[in-house]
Write a structure and sequence with these properties.
Rossmann fold, Beta-Lactamase, 6-stranded mixed β-sheet, 5-stranded parallel β-sheet, 48% helix
């Protein structure tokens, strides 16, 4: 803030009590030093109803000094002479309004005219007053301008506060959006997991209701294979059962697309290579490519060279009661839902096989139950 030294400095008003509102600051802009002092004296010597002086005066003698004071200090009102040494008071009023640093301006003119008043309003001034006006008229105009300045300051403060609030709300919105996106992702995963569990429960209930009534091995195998084909679509399938010689024999099969003459040879060979490898496996073995078939079957993978395959073992009380293999052309892969479906089937199928064995051998000691592959048991052929 620029202040002139010596006699150009008006008497400082008494200190404001801490509990009283701050005294407004008025910028007086005039090229005439005596005129500046006279205007400052009128404003500094008058007190309002609170006992405070109505204004603290800051002085400038040119447009340049006035703009510097506006930029460096908080000015509530500018009293600007229409004629200044380095420019027009109207132009200065317009520039102060453009910068938005002073909310109110009053122009001072020797002989105000209607044209000057209209031009002053266009430049952003709130009033135009004669330089020879009485002190009371000047004070009235200043008080009115102060009220408009106060309202403008209040409005700006409210806008600033609302802007800060909006910025915080926007940040909170972005944070909530991220959390909602994360929650939606968790809900989707939970829904998919729940849907999978519901599907597994539905399959388990359906399959169990079918096989629980089957107490004959042949009927059980037939029902199980029919259910598997209904869930996986047309496929070659074979069920290998343990025999008394600790080997596995073909218990039932479905021939979908294998040549009939070669089917028996292929299935007999798979009984000797697939069943022993799967006997102690607790998880499904999914082999959609030849590389995975080769990793599992080794040199015998060529028997299923053009196929994708799924194999699983059915256990009951730590004993393997059956090994199942499904295979078909690799160009027609198994659906993604096949794996969870077959996992459910494997568990229930093993339990029902154990139940059938218990019923058919309950009159014998458990160590004499034997296996399924007795000499008088015929294989079940479900071929189309």
């Amino acid at each position: 803030m620029a202040r002139r030294k010596g006699t150009d400095q008006p008497p400082a008003p008494p200190a404001v009590k801490p509990d009283l509102p701050a005294i407004p600051r008025v910028l007086i802009v005039s090229g005439n030093r005596l005129e500046r002092l006279r205007l400052a004296s009128k404003l500094s010597d008058v007190v309002d109803h609170t006992g405070s002086h109505i204004a603290v005066c800051v002085m400038a003698d040119s447009c340049k000094e006035a703009l510097k004071a506006v930029d460096n200090d908080q000015i509530d009102l500018a009293l600007i002479k229409t004629e200044l040494p380095d420019g027009s008071g109207l132009a200065l009023t317009r520039e102060i309004a453009r910068r938005g640093r002073c909310p109110a301006s009053i122009l001072l003119s020797e002989n105000p005219t209607l044209d000057q008043a209209v031009e002053a309003m266009r430049c952003g001034a709130v009033d135009i007053v004669s330089c020879r006006a009485a002190a009371t008229d000047l004070i009235t105009s200043v008080r009115t301008a102060f009220e408009r300045s106060r309202q403008a300051r209040t409005r700006e403060a409210r806008i600033d506060r609302l802007t800060r609030v909006c910025r915080r709300l926007n940040q909170a919105r972005h944070e909530v959006t991220k959390q909602v996106s994360s929650l939606c992702g968790d809900l989707v995963e939970a829904y998919q997991e729940l849907s999978g569990q519901v599907l597994e429960l539905s399959i388990a209930s359906e399959f169990n209701s079918l096989i629980r009534q089957e107490l004959d091995v042949e009927s059980l195998l037939r029902t199980a294979l029919e259910f598997i084909l209904a869930k996986t679509g047309p496929t070659n399938a074979a069920v290998f059962l343990p025999a008394t010689s600790n080997d596995f024999s073909l218990g039932a099969y479905v021939n979908y697309d294998c040549p009939k003459d070669a089917a028996d040879v292929l299935l007999d060979h798979l009984a000797g290579i697939v069943a022993p490898r799967m006997e102690n496996e607790r998880e499904l073995k999914i082999m959609p490519t030849y590389a995975e078939l080769e990793a599992f079957l080794g040199a015998d993978a060529h028997w299923l060279a053009e196929s994708s395959a799924i194999s699983f073992a059915c256990h009951h009380e730590d004993e393997c009661l059956a090994v199942v293999i499904l295979f078909r052309d690799r160009r027609n892969p198994f659906p993604e839902t096949a794996a969870p479906t077959l996992s459910v089937i494997a568990d229930l199928f093993g339990k029902q096989l154990g139940r059938v064995i218990h019923i058919h051998h309950r009159h014998l000691p458990k160590d004499q139950w034997g296996g399924f592959g007795e000499a008088d048991d015929d294989d079940i052929d479900l071929a189309a």
